[in-house]
Amino acid sequence: MGASVRLLRAVLMGPPGSGKRTVALRITKGFQLKTFSSGDLLRDNLLRDTEIGSWLLCGFPRTLPQAEALERAYQIHLVMSLNVPSEVIKQRLSARWIHPSSGRVYNLEFNPPKAIGLDDLTGEPLVQREDDRPETLNQRLKAYEDQTKPVLEYYREKGVLETFSGTKTDQIWPCVRAFLQTKVPQIDQKASVTP
Fold it and tell me: Which family is this protein grouped under (predicted)?
């Protein structure tokens, strides 16, 4: 690895709808980290005994056994937890619609499609994910809290947990960015500011 490579292994946690994906995209753009949304790539690299350098895990680990297994394989340098009130999350997710074949995400409140119910690029119908519907959302949020409370405590005891609270991603992002600037040099000043 060259001298310009930064080694940082970070975890981004937060309940469904807290803005993890948006924050992860901004982090990877502004700090040139690789992001992974599951453990598949890590398991593959463990099997092949390779080194993958700097990365950000988004939404993993979710349970204490996963966190402990990850720590046995890699030293985690920091864990960022997004703390967004449940009522805000429920409002966000009930307004979220997706284009199934592309994965494009729309929000009726702050990123609406040009034509209600239709994808901007293809004109195909948008759908609401089953787990974003109000009747299943309470169960998801409760499950997240039950599973991740011990994970957050585990990382708090290790001294690597940093929590960011707010009601909007654009409110939380500047705090995350400022914190990461103390850990990793920015690659592109413009990239770290734009959504």
Answer: Belongs to the adenylate kinase family.
